[in-house]
Model the fold of this input.
Amino acid sequence: MITRLFGRQPFGLAIAAPYIVFLAVVMAYPLAYAVWISFYDYVFAAPGVSLDHEFVGLANYRAALTDPRVQQSFVNIVVFLAINVPLTVSLSMVLASALNAITRWTAAFRVAFYVPYVTASVSLIGVWMLLFSEDGIVNSILGPLAPSPSWLVNDALAMPSIALFVTWKQLGFYILLYLAALQAVPRELYESASTDGAGALQRFWHITVPGVRSTTLIVLILSIIVGANLFTEPYLLTNGGGPDGASSSPVLLIYQKGIQQGNPDVASAIGVLLVIGVGLLSLISTRLTKES
Amino acid sequence: MTSLHAPPEAPPAGPTRRAVARGALAAAGLAAASLTSACSRPVVADQAAARQSRGPITVWTSNNEQELAWGKTVTDAWNVDHPDEKVTLQEVPAGASTEEAITAAIVAGTTPDLLFAVSPAATSDWVRQGGLVDLSSFDGGSEYIEDRVGEVARGYVHEDGRYYQMPWKSNPVMIMYNRKLFKAAGLDPDDPGMTSYETFLDGAQRIVDAGASRSAIWPAPTAEYFQSWFDYYPLLLAQTHGTRLIEDGSATFAGPEGMAVGEFWAQIYERGLAPQETSTDNAMAVGTTAMQIAGPWAIASYDGTIDYGIMPVPTQEGVPPEQITTFADAKNASIFTSSRNQRTAWDVLRFATDVDQDRTLLDLTGQLPMRTHLLEVHPQFFEENPVYRAFAEQSDRVADVPNISGAIEIWQRFRDAYVASVILGKRGVSEEFPSVARDIDTLLGARS
Done:
């Protein structure tokens, strides 16, 4: 009976069970519930209060897709990813290679890159606001070259500023992934290449890049997923996605519509669209990395 | 050819996909059920019985130091005489705003019995969610509220004609200014004369031109839905003698008066008299602006720091101060349907809003209890603290946000349009305001 229910290795299933429960409760159940909500006229109610939820078909999706703010937020996130993902992949790979090559002060350098990642976004954002505000340090240095309006209230610069902030903040984590991957690249390959007269750039391009390809795929997919979930930075750095929605993100709108404005149905529809978009991007990334 | 190795065994059969899926579903179901039952306190099924029930209750107040001190004083006083109906005081959980923290608490079933920090903008939605108790259902409930607050109480009636919030305190919004900076700009700090849009703009221009401060006035130029309550809305109420953003199911701000207010603020930004960027510190306290729109709560932060004056918000033609209506910025009190001892909650609500506790509120917080003829009820306080007198005089002429379902969504739509047209000047006020008013009317039509 036990074998029929749990297979021939019930112990393995028992070990995996906590994680399965975690995934089911924290990921699968809310996702399924969100999909259900997205097809109904839904508002949150106090426990024990019964409200009628009318089936509305695709109306919430129509509301989401025809809302200019939602459209703009998806465009914004594409801009964000176009800046953040290539920068993350290239910088973390190059910096990890450099950190792997140096022999002195290695711990100090690694900590220096990792500290922003483990520091709370809220405190770092405070520092960036001082740096990039109209009368901040950056504009003081730039003088007449400073943009007007300033970085965080400038339509064209708000989202790139956020993309740079996020890239800088998260770089330490991705550098660590690459550092781990570089340990697995045989040193003999570098020595042979050096003997054959290959320069540092050639060694990087022909040995390091292919040697860490699987990590590159992970970094690519992770940075897409993390980037698509952008919330804290536009919420705090540009005070709710300003100026005029130029830095709003789909997750910020999910929060505004679902939690602030009491429209969890439309918020769920935006969430489902975002999940589909991220899934497609991840699939494309996987295909591209494999082919390359 | 023979092999030195024995043929490999077939790999052991692992759990089938069906078994894993079955296990996962069962686990998810169990976990979800246990989570919802263990963490939440459902709405009391028999509300009529709860309405008569007495016993211990929990009260939440805002988490600022002054209001917590008031809450402690009031609950201590109550607990001395009511050992069987003990009140436990807690602060509202931290959150981006009190509205969000309460909305989350209603959905999670973790609301207190009684709350003294209710935002009028959110109450209609909380009623719709089944979270608030009808205060009119207590004996003499409506009468008590109307006796205390007078005509202003009508602004807090729910669309079904009943009270779900007790108007408790208000922070009438006025303009506070730095007298020293005004003097430096050649303005008379005792009588700046900035009552009309024209004189206000002239005065503001003189402040900036004279280099007295970096900006004349510095409202938060950000997109949060509530920011309009501290720049556009007080002037709309002043200009229209109290017409709220939505009246009789439609938007009012696209009329000539609402547009004039929008054009006035657009001028402020266009001339560089107010920054388009948020201040990283208290701009008035550090002298980077000469004026700020604020309620009496700001007195404590400027007392001893700067020499300040107080004036009403301007109107297009500059009407006398005694004709100005401004934004109330009220915070009210409500009882939640999760309360098992609603009778005690109601008694505590009345106790905490009596004349003595209102005086305690004035003494400890400097915020104004909402009651008619406040100056006459507490003459001694205003004699000892004359700086609060201007706000108290204004408190008889206030209006709040409209009591409508979906209010926050409507305010957000308005704020988005305001930021684009007024603050950033990307679109003209004359096009943007009517356009968003039509959107809001459609939204209101769909909800009704």
Observations:
- Residues 17-39 of chain B form the longest helix (23 residues).
- Chain B touches chain A through 60 residues (CB under 8 Å).
- Residues 1-38 of chain B have pLDDT under 50 and may be disordered.
